[in-house]
Amino acid sequence: MTDTARQRLEMRQDLNSTINARLQKRYHDEWIESQQDLNVVVRLVSEKDASLRHIKIIQNFHDVLDVSDFLDALDGSQVQTVAFVGINMDKDYSIKLAKSLSDKNSCIACLQLCRIMPRGLVDICPAVSYCESLKELSLTFDHDLPTEGIELLMRSLGSSRTLEIFKLFCADLQGESTRLLANAVLESTSLVDMRITSCNLTDITCLAEAIQQNNRLTRVDFSMNQISDTSALATLWSCPSITYLNVSQNEIGSESITMSSKKLIRKHFDRLASNTTLTHLHLDMNPMGPDFVEQLRISLQKNTTLTRLGFLSLTVSKEAADRIRYLISLNVAGRGKVQKGLPAELIPQILGRVSHEPDLIHGLITQAPHLWLY
Fold first, then answer.
1. Which of 13, 152, 179, 199 could be a cystine partner for 125, CB 3.0 to 4.6 Å?
2. Which helix (H) or strand (E) holds 166?
3. What's the pLDDT tens digit per position in 19-59?
């Protein structure tokens, strides 16, 4: 073979490798949005292609996708992630999906359904309860989930022994529905991550108590709801298992604080001050009043483990925000280590001078660097 022929062969091989790599990325990492691409995926899944494990299908405005063949091929396959966005999950689709979930050899670990029809839960929920491979369930509705649908969903959530992550969007959970969710949390033995967003949550007292009693959840996200009760919030941030708490875009801090209620409010914030497990707290876009912000600042003077605080809000002054961010920055720098390594009687004096004498921090770092290392 001449050098020219060898070069051409190498070029063709490189080109084929590049094309194959792009196809692999197309069907493995990107959203499938055309029927032509979906048909290719159906063929690969039917052939038990072991490399095709994560499939994400999205309905755009131009093509109406038919996922019936895909759901048939899914039964008994090695697919681990199934994500549908914009696909009308009607009764027929739900039956086929439930069949795949119920298969004893199912490998589906993550199921994401956006725009699911509520009537499909009659088939899907029992399958969720029995599926031994399912670890994550994410469902999005259009505020059209009736009470009987909520009951089915919460029953499957509580009875599943493998589900670790549950995400629910745009379903109205008020009154009895919140209690059903609280009961599901109490019954769950595997749930560690829960996100309930845009579900019109208001009174979460029973839900917060259930989370504390369950004491397994590490991540809780109640963003974009209507929560305002500081007492329920305090129950959440005092739960020893929670490390990440997101209550952004609620009504936190909007409650009026009177002279008679200040003592009780201080007790709520004392629970944050003494917390030693919460590392991420998100309070962004809440109408936090000056008294709420001040109590938060006081509690953070004692808390040494919170290292991420979402605090963006139009109701918080720049001065107050800077003070709070400064306290969080001390935690990131290792304030807790310093408190453990220095005589207890010196700590109040040091922390009292730090805000006026920032050079003091530099002195601590240079004189006792071992106290700042993790």
1. 152
2. strand 165-169
3. 444 444 444 557 898 899 999 999 999 988 888 899 999 98
Pairing of strands 280-282, 165-169: unpaired
Kindly report the CATH number that applies to the domain delimited by 201-333.
Answer: 3.80.10.10
How far is 31 from 37, CA to CA, in rounded Å? 10
* CATH number of the 25-192 domain: 3.80.10.10
* DSSP class of 32: B
User: 29 — alpha (psi -120 to 50), left (phi > 0) or beta?
Assistant: alpha
Sorted by where each begins, the domain ranges of the chain are 25-192, 201-333
Report the Cα 21 to chain-centroid distance in Å.
32
Rounded to two decimals, the pTM is: 0.84
CB atoms within 10 A of CB 41: 22
Residue 57 pairs with which residues in a beta bridge? 32, 84
Strand order in the sheet with 54-58: 54-58, 81-89, 110-116, 136-140, 165-169, 193-197, 219-221, 244-246, 280-282, 308-310
Cα–Cα nearest to 77, from 50, 96, 55, 57: 50
